[in-house]
Design goal:
two-stranded antiparallel sheet
Length: 133
């Protein structure tokens, strides 16, 4: 039965998508209200989960890559870029030892990129990155 359902979904992908869209349009207000209620009801639960998740290595990586993408950084492999970022211990321009703090300092590790194209350039200290702009 599972295999039949899978084949049916693959064969009728467009038809199913059209029906879903029609259903959503018809029930938009009800669905949005239910979602809003659910989010309000589970706000604290989500906040607690995110707090724990963001403390894990996977959470930190995910957050950092999301931030890079939102700032317009372009790269063919963000996992590879993250590994380079984490494993770079010294500024690629001035050779100062890089730090990771809650506050930004002149030696904080940053990802330098071209603001016009979004292309990654170097892993630098914050001081060199500010001067480079």
């Amino acid at each position: 039965m599972k295999e039949y359902d899978k084949q049916y979904r693959e064969k009728n992908r467009e038809k199913i998508a059209k029906k879903k869209k029609q259903y959503y349009q018809k029930n938009k207000d009800i669905l949005q209200e239910k979602n809003k209620e659910y989010r309000e009801k589970n706000k604290e639960k989500k906040k607690e989960y995110m707090k724990k998740y963001c403390q894990t290595e996977k959470g930190k990586k995910s957050y950092r890559i999301t931030q890079w993408k939102s700032r317009g950084i372009v790269h063919h492999n963000f996992d590879e870029l993250y590994e380079k970022f984490i494993n770079t211990g010294y500024c690629e321009l001035c050779n100062v030892k890089l730090t990771e703090d809650k506050r930004t300092t002149p030696t904080t590790r940053v990802l330098d990129h071209c603001h016009e194209t979004g292309e990654f350039r170097n892993v630098l200290c914050n001081s060199c990155n500010v001067k480079r702009k």
